[in-house]
Structure formats: C-alpha cells, structure tokens
Design goal:
- Keywords: Membrane, Transmembrane, Transmembrane helix.
- The chain is of the alpha+beta class.
- The protein has 2 domains: 43 residues; 131 residues, Sandwich (Immunoglobulin-like), CATH 2.60.40.
- It has 3 helices and 9 strands, in the order αββββαββαβββ.
- Strands 3, 4, 5, 7, 8 and 9 form a 6-stranded antiparallel β-sheet that branches. The protein has a 3-stranded antiparallel β-sheet with strand order 1-2-6, covered by helices on one side.
Length: 206
C-alpha cells in the first residue's frame, strides 16, 4: 500500500526577503538616476536655449529714422538719418523711400518736384558715403540726405522743411544670426520676416 508522504517544508532563512529588498532598492535607485538624468538633460537644454537667446539679444539691431531741421549749432540744416539704436550690427538688404506714394529714385528730382521755387536757387544736397547702407554698426548713424539752408534757397528750403515729414521708409534688415525684420523706422515693433530680398540699388541715388 502506498502512503502519501508530505514533503518537509523548507526552512525559511529570510534570504529571499533580503534579495527582494536589494532588488527593489536597485530598481528604485535606477529609476531615480534615470529621472535625475532626464531632469539634468532638460535643465541643460533650457540653459542652452537661454544662452542662445542672450547672445541673440546682445546682437539685436534696431533701426530708427529721424529727421531734423537744425544742426548742433542751431544753423538751418534739414537731415534725414537712419540710426542703428540696437546693440548689434544691422545688415540692410533693401530700402525704399516714398513721397506722396511715389518711390524716390533720385534725390535731385525729388527736391525739384517737391520744393523748387521759380526764380530761386535749386536746393543742393549731400549724403554720407555709406548712404546706400549695407552694414550699419550698433550706434552708427547714416545721413542719407542733408540740405543746408541759405538766404538764396530760403523759400525752397522752407518747402522742404514741410515736405520732409511726408517721406516714408520701408527697410528690410537682418541681424548677424539672420533674424530679419521690416520697419518704417518709426515703430518700436519691427515686423519679423523670414528673409530679406537683396536689391542691387537701395534707396535714392544721385
């Protein structure tokens, strides 16, 4: 006759629990290490982005257009000036000036059309060598038109003094990081654009 013999129960030493504790601890430490690595990666990415933004901010160009009718000594002098009031160089790819909706192509023609007075002297003008722009450094001002007043051209000069406020600008420029904007030179918020189309001739010529 066969007897059912119950096998003896193995003696519990507690090692299994220790193994579970050790394994669980290792898994926990691995998860903590993974979380720290992910957090560190995100932190470094944010720091890199912040550094990039800081560099771009420190290279930001900002163009302003000003007009005046006196020089530093109080003498009559009409001036149209483009100044880079930003902290980085501005690469100017195109500029368009208009008066009463018409593009100004020649300064002398503009002066004759807007301001000539029969029987009086023509207005003569001067402009900076870099009046066609290109790269304007931070803090640099470009005198694109200067017309001095005199007794001989007083009537025509007075007409120009009124007309100068009607000259509008459209300038497309980029930073050294090829971030680009268009501006009328009077706004505090230039319009961001993807790129600027370069033009062989920029602004009025002689």
């Amino acid at each position: 006759m066969l007897l059912d013999v119950e096998p003896p129960e193995p003696h519990k030493t507690g090692h299994h629990k220790i193994d579970l504790i050790i394994g669980g601890s290792a898994l926990f430490l691995s998860l903590v290490s993974l979380a720290i690595a992910v957090l560190h990666g995100h932190t470094m990415e944010r720091m890199a982005n912040a550094n990039t933004q800081l560099v771009q901010a420190n290279s930001w160009p900002f163009l302003q257009v000003t007009t005046s009718n006196e020089d530093d000594n109080g003498e009559r002098l009409i001036a149209l000036t483009v100044k880079n009031a930003g902290v980085g160089p501005a690469k100017i790819y195109s500029s368009e000036l208009r008066y009463k909706g018409e593009i100004i192509q020649k300064w002398q023609k503009f002066l004759d059309d807007c301001c000539s007075v029969p029987g009086t002297s023509k207005l003569s003008y001067s402009s900076s060598d870099n009046a066609s722009f290109g790269v304007v450094r931070a803090g640099e001002a470009v005198n694109i038109l200067r017309v001095a007043g005199s007794d001989e051209n007083r009537l025509a000069w007075n007409k120009l003094n009124v007309a100068r406020d009607g000259v509008s600008f459209k300038i497309c420029y980029c930073s050294v990081f090829d971030e680009c904007w268009t501006t009328n030179g009077k706004t505090l918020s230039p319009t961001p654009v993807k790129t600027c189309e370069a033009k062989e001739e920029m602004g009025p010529q002689g």
